[in-house]
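Figure caption, in words: inputs first, then the predicted bound structure.
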Amino acid sequence: MAENYRADTVFARLGDENGAPHYDLVEPAEFPEHILRYRNQRWAARVGLASLSDDAWIRHFGRFEPLPDNLTQPLAIRYHGHQFRTYNPDIGDGRGFLYAQLRDDQDRLLDLGTKGSGQTPYSRFGDGRLTLKGGVREILATEMLEALGVYTSKSFSLIETGEALQRQDEPSPTRSSVLVRLSHSHVRFGVFQRLAFEKNENAIAALIDYCIENYFPALSTPGDSNVIGFYTSVIQHTARLVAQWMAAGFVHGVLNTDNMNVTGESFDYGPWRFAPTADPGFTAAYFDQTGLYSFGRQAEAGAWNLAQLGGALAQQADVDALNKTLQLFSGFYETAMADAYFERLGLKRTGADDFKFVVDFLKWMTETGAPYEQVFFDWFCGAASVDRADHSAVAELYQQEKFASLKSRLLQYTPINPERLESRYFQNAGPCTMLIDEVEAIWAPIAEKDDWSAFERKLEAIAGMRDAYQFNASRYA
Ligand code: AMP
Ligand code: MG
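Bound structure (magnesium ion present):
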């Protein structure tokens, strides 16, 4: 272990003094094979794990031998949740667990959690496994989102495990894998919902204290759990996350209350898609027939989920105060939308009119069906890109009358660090994208002939984009 490896198993210490522990101790599955497919060296370095040999990496992230001074046994976290607006008390970590907790170079508490590591008491009829395609898709989503400035969990490790899985949504049998993700918290809204369902108010109070201490330390005032302050922070962070998804053109796909956590960190990537255009009705999951979680309804989903979290806090604070706090969502969301779109455009915020500009800009994108990522690529740093936009494959769109007034507004904003345009990425003809056809084209050679070259090439292209934009989404501590 490097010097900066720092174990800190705070969640386990939360304990069961209230008669309702937050987890069950579980055993990892034993897999017939362990083929290392991906290790995230960039993030491993930040938590002191980059120097592990591949063998040691597999022992920890494929066989789950405990890390030094860390959890001695994995914890399957208990939670409930609203799935497509129906309450389900039978969920929980059904194919994952909390494996370790660490401090990073900024003293942030980070979790190493798994997906596909075996059955738990919450597996119901599931096999506790993750398909290799599911693992590959989660890596592609997280790498893309991080590069685009979205606060997301990181894919830390992917190991192929040599089993044959049966799935409805993939040609089966299909290959298996186990993923490890690094994230800031695993405290889902559904963790609070479960405690409220069990009427365990002491445990809710203790969990709020835990969240404040570890995730919102600025709220800490000794002897005061500051429930409203906590709820306000979660609302603000959720608004920021949804705005970042929007600005990235990303549709998460399954915005159930168990897939949102208190730090507003994007995680749990299933049927996600990037939207080709700003079509509000664009939907990611084939099973989302009504478009509940479509591109244009993600803010509504966030607000609805926050209302459920508020409900779970109802015995902890004055209900009117909680309701009033929830109403802050739309204001937070407007600010977050302006922040996120201006960041993506590489422009300096000026004032309250910025949000109006974003609304008009999005409206134009929706009406014209402009290719989403291309527009941000073409107009990065506004006035500094006029020449580049003139040479775009869709330059014709920018010459149309209906873009004229938007363009003149765009050109009035001050670019931030326009020297970023000198990077190689912006010399390319078009942006790095991750539309569904590209995802399938990366997966096909892996499935057909175990050829990972398209996957590796894509990760390199994303790294080029990340280095060019320098958004540094991990600054959201
Ligand atoms: P998700 O749709 O991935 O957010 O999962 C919703 C719930 O189903 C969670 O409780 C998961 O742990 C559980 N789950 C999903 N897939 C499986 C599986 N293959 N085996 C066991 N549990 C699963
Ligand atoms: Mg989930």
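The mean pLDDT is 95.
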